[in-house]
Design goal:
With 185 residues, the chain is α+β, with helices and mostly antiparallel strands. It has one domain. The protein contains 3 helices and 11 strands. Strands 1, 2, 3, 4, 5, 6, 7, 8, 9, 10 and 11 form an 11-stranded antiparallel sheet that branches. A hairpin with a 4-residue loop joins strand 8 (128-136) and strand 9 (141-148).
Length: 185
């Protein structure tokens, strides 16, 4: 899937280096995990830090909690965990959400990557200049939308793809490495 994402963004700086930076940042920081109620995207900070005990209790009771990977103040990514949906937000060095993966419970009780969104920002600002969204179906259908923000322009394509790599097991508490893989194929 990453190859489609890379090839679909053909303007601006080389996206390959951005992907490598995301993965490198993730690899360097994934040793430590922290827990909280949520990651506040607009303020770029954690809300209500949880102890491991509280987060585990939420996990066991199928209640929402968030995992911060690498650091509380400057995580490489966050994972919003609920009973049937898990959202992974990959952050750049300025804590902007550059890549988002949404996993939903599949018919076989595994998770399936249903949505991937890649964003590019204007310089050091939080202004999004372009985004590419992928919506996957378990049967292999793919809807892709590429959006340029200024001037506003949108391009939509529909195709079929191999989605076998979009499936993953539900995480055991504390074991999130498979969810935070940038490369999905």
């Amino acid at each position: 899937m990453l190859a489609w994402l890379r090839s679909s963004i053909n303007t601006g700086p080389d996206p390959t280096s951005k992907w490598q930076n995301i993965q490198l940042r993730n690899d360097l920081m994934k040793k430590e995990i922290f827990f909280c109620k949520a990651w506040f995207r607009a303020m770029k900070r954690a809300i209500d830090i949880y102890s491991e005990t509280q987060a585990k209790k939420n996990h066991e009771n199928k209640l929402k909690y968030t995992v911060l990977v690498g650091s509380v103040e400057s995580p490489s990514c966050f994972i919003d965990v609920t009973d049937s949906v898990i959202v992974v937000g990959f952050l750049d060095g300025q804590l902007r959400e550059i890549l988002t993966y949404t996993f939903q419970e599949a018919a076989d009780n595994r998770l399936f990557l249903t949505v991937a969104i890649y964003r590019e920002f204007q310089g050091d600002s939080d202004e999004i200049v372009r985004a590419v969204s992928y919506i996957f179906g378990e049967g292999g259908n793919l809807n892709m939308e590429r959006v340029e923000m200024k001037p506003r322009k949108s391009e939509i394509s529909i195709s079929s793809v191999d989605v076998s790599h979009n499936f993953t097991e539900k995480p055991v508490f504390g074991e999130y490495d498979d969810l935070i893989r940038v490369e999905r194929c």
